[in-house]
Design a protein that fits this description.
Helix 7 links the parallel strand 1 and strand 2. The termini are far apart. The protein is built from 11 helices and 7 strands. With 284 residues, it is α/β, with parallel strands linked by helices. The longest helix has 25 residues. The model has no long low-confidence stretch (mean pLDDT 94). The protein has a 7-stranded mixed beta sheet with strand order 3-2-1-4-5-7-6, with helices on both faces.
Amino acid sequence: MHAKKLKRNLKNLDEAYLAKCDSFIQKYNRYLGSIHKDLDFGVDCYRKMIADFMYEQLRFMETGKYSSTSFDEVNKRVYNNPDVMGYFMNGLLLSQILWKHHYKIFSFFADTFPKYGKDSKSYLEIGGGHGLFISQAIEVLETQTKFSLLDISPTSLEVSKQFIGDYPVEYILSDIFEYDTASKFDFITMGEVLEHVEDPVALMTKLKALLNDNGTIFMTTPTNAPSIDHIYLFSNADDIRKIIDKAGLEVVDEIQVYAEDIPEEKAIELKVTMMYGSFLKKKN
């Protein structure tokens, strides 16, 4: 049943999708080889993740709420549980190319990043997870650029290390709110982290403090997206934009993609997951 859904959602994508798939599969096969696994391992992880999503979706349909309410709860149950994080991160890695909304967000980043980030000398990724976005930035930026990747999960950092390979990246095991540095960054990427915290304004304010005055942030977050580790529920894009504005940031480029290929009014009515991504600057 899930395979039919994937085929339906992906059937209208263009040749650029196939090209990005080829590039992804090359990286993914190299990554699997580095951890002595095969494609069956990745598929098994993906299927376990899908089962989690289905359960959370059913609860969301019944209650209208996410099942988790506190960061401490999620941190103990998910981020500090290597068994859960292992299959979850590997499943999410495949979703970047199998889910239309994840693919379009990644494609938006890959195609637009050079416009805002090509001259960056320092790059920070927060919640790098599987390492796909920073690996794309590495392909674009010059070799002297300093790359840093921060994550609260040791498992996520290890997956990122293996996916990125030998490229010199500073890996930081830390809660972003506890990250104390005098450094400022030209570019900051934060993919699907905002929904994992209890105070998203505080998180965006923290990012602003880490950003150089002329720097750029790329962030993504979903609406109506129940998951084993999601806490903060965004109902629509305006909810997200209000958080951005309160943190003293402004949107300079953005994208919205629904998870299902149905008319927008129907997607809103049914509370279908929508992925939001944007490039941000500090307000003048």
